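Workshop exercise sheet. Pairs work together: one partner reads the sequence aloud, the other fills in the structure field after running the prediction. Swap roles for the next sheet.
Pair: D.N. / O.F.
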Amino acid sequence: MKRPSVVRLSPVLILLGIALLTCSCARHAPTAPDNALRAQSAASSASASLSAHAARVTAGGTLEGDIGPGAHYVISVPETWNGDLVLYAHGYTAPIFPVGVPPGEEVLVEGMRTIASQGGFAFAYSNYSQTGLGLKDAALRTDQLANIFGSLVGKPRRTFLIGASFGGLVALKLVETHPERYAGLLTLCGMIGGVQPEVDYVSNVRALFDYFYPGVLPGNVLKLPANFDLQNDLVIPVATAIQTNPVPALEMSQVTQTPIPFSNGTQLVQSIIQALVLQAVELQDLLNRTHGQSFFDNTRTVYTGNLPPELLADLNAHVVRYSEGPAAANLFEKEYGPSGDLRVPLVSLHTSLDPVVPIFHEDLYRSLVEAHGGTANLHQTRVERYGHLNFTAEELVGGFGQMIAAAATP
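Structure field:
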């Protein structure tokens, strides 16, 4: 086994740079149009009926409003509208942040809006009304936005979806559920394999970190102390432990159940911390959604990998085991898993070394689509790069264009 060089990372920079659980872009506030119109809308049902005071938006205008409690939306229509609409589903917003587009993703939202607008497409997105893994709410708010657009602008000729990170699963659920409503989908580092594989990945990283670095982190996979602090209780001690002894971190990466993405020592540390941060910030939200029951099960897991047999035997004998509760199993099966029944074109862009939503999501979804015989609609592009949502402008333009080209002629 090749011993990695010891890396010296600033824990503060790690926290600021990767613990936001969003894209690799720097945080940037979107530029508001000079003459933006603001209106309130109310939604008492999935039809998202509008307030009598909602204003119509015309070509070259932007309108903002609210869908029910807290779900803010933005609609932009270019000067020369081609009649098509693009709905954007944003990524995971950690419960430590307010409801809204995740910090750091504003740049991507604005970039995709610009790409769509320059092609003559209208563009709209919603903040959702929940943080965490509120998949049902996110899909509902995005679907309602299409109805609001029809009322304020007019019925679009075609509707496309773009989903980033967790938003990729949001958009995919809409496409699989209502294929007749959408002409195509572009996912960007999408969680298209489902929530269960993502939860299993970060939970396994936590369980194995506790085995390889015992006593470094407080609590466990299912419990953290009430006064838990991300920087002082996770980022700093994890970075220090790996810097002091990097060999166990490399051994973790060789376990099949923890395919930690990295190509050098710095990326290895970043990816481990990223997974541990994601597991920690989502813990309480998951427990709330499973009524306090365990959401992770490794009782029958046989950990395998490119490690000496004696080490694997010791790992399997001594790693802490957890048993999933029935509420969690039911939740993941019914609400958080894709079916693979893909009836419209899906173009995916995914970085090969994604520390947030690992590339294995692409393989998992392809397997589901193959089982349904719909691979003709699946167009996957692997971008050889480290980072989450770390794409060039040219790659984003190319992905958008591929989605449009793959869509059926209206």
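Discussion prompt: The longest helix spans residues 265-289. What would you look at next?
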